[in-house]
From TrEMBL:
It comes from Bradyrhizobium erythrophlei. Substrate binds at residue 137. The keyword Iron does not apply. GO terms for molecular function: metal ion binding. It comes from the Bacteria. This is Putative 4-hydroxy-4-methyl-2-oxoglutarate aldolase. Gene3D superfamilies: Ribonuclease E inhibitor RraA/RraA-like. Keywords: Magnesium, Metal-binding. Mg(2+) binds at residue 138. Its cofactor is a divalent metal cation; Mg(2+).
Amino acid sequence: MTDSEKAPLPAALLEALGRYDTPTICNALEIVAPERRLIGYTTKPLVCPFPELPPMVGYARTVTIRSVLQSALPAAEQSKRRIAYYEYMGTGHGPRITVIQDIDGPDVGYGAFWGEVQSSVHKALGCLGVITDGSIRDIPQWAPGFQALAGSIGPSHAWVHADSFGGEVRVAGMTVRSGDLIHADCHGAVVIPTDIAAKVPDAAELCGRRETPILEIARSPSFTLEKLKEALAKSAEIH
């Protein structure tokens, strides 16, 4: 059974995950799923025009786009494809996060799929934001509160269109399937396997408790190397 076929997680759990930033979630996953230490998160830099927005947690709606080549579909078929795309975006477990792979190869980001219109439409459809290695535009007119992580910012949409949706995509080093649980903020994004998601908040809290004695002494005017050694030992004993 794929994640998209599973029952949605409790809203309270999604809220709990959203209390932590994405680096902390990655730290927590190292505890509960150490085999994922090198996979499941973005590894290439993405632009975040709205770093002040809180972390977003939602289920992925996956898309591939192209902008260098014009769609080969007749106008009527293009209209049907657009409606089918929006139906896909507006259905399924919520909240949702759009994850878009630009498949234009060396021309990735040539045309922006996202701007004032798409951010507003997708927000209305119940999406929290977009994660894409493609480009975005219309930053001042962007839908308020709608998060964006993008490969670049550009002025034109060129021939941009959705090539496919609902399949597996790879964005900035992160492989995502439709329905995957995503946690993202200005640092990047990570996939949280739903079968271990309930363990992540406690692990994140543990990470914080382990860091506390180190941070306290590091920020103290009475800092010494010996006190740092003591804090590190104390941190290691916290379970």
